[in-house]
Every structure is written in C-alpha cells, then in structure tokens.
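Lab meeting tomorrow. Please check the following:
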Amino acid sequence: MAQGRGSGAMVVLGLLLLCVLLHGQVAESAVFTVGDRGGWTFNSNSWTNGKRFKAGDVLVFKYDSSAHNVVAVNAAGYKGCTAPRGARTFKSGNDRVTLARGTNYFICSIPGHCQSGMKIAVNAA
C-alpha cells in the first residue's frame, strides 16, 4: 500500500512539474530590435517582413533621440503619417514597447520621416 501512495505522489509531482514548464513557455516573450543592427531609421517599414510576432512580445526602438522619436498611432495615423492627439510618444532613443494583440502601428513624427519610410505596422497574433 505504501508503494501505491508513493507512485501517486510521483504522478502528481510529475504533472505539477509539467504544468510549471508549460506555463513558463507561454509566459515567455520575444524581444525584437526594430531595424536589427541599423535600428529605427528610414526605410524601416519592410523590417517586419518574414517575422512572426505574438501579443506580449517586446519591440526595442534604438535611435538618435535628437533626430527621431517613436509614436504609437492608429491605422489612420499610420496611413496618413500623422500622430493623433494623445498618441503615446517615446523619445528616449532606447524605447521598449510591448505588443498588443492585433496590428500595432508606429511612426516617427518628425516632419518628412514617416513619409520616407520611418514607420512600421506589426501584427501580433
């Protein structure tokens, strides 16, 4: 009888360990540096090609803060290269943004920069 209880405890312990490991994989998020080595700059709009993003992943925007910024915008702001009133603006030059589920849009709001391709649309599953 004691042997039966011990093997049951091992099964419970095994299942508990499995749950912890699975939870750790789900909680894990990826970190992407926008533009890779080149950073957040002109013609960044194709940087997302071939990449897969999930809600909770983190984008790191590295750039010269005296020349650029990052603004989280909606679809209209992305298309028109405009920052709506109240849009969240990042200015540190080393910004970390966690992706929400759906399409996340970012532009540089310095005049002419977005029109020169300094914008990205990131779809997070």
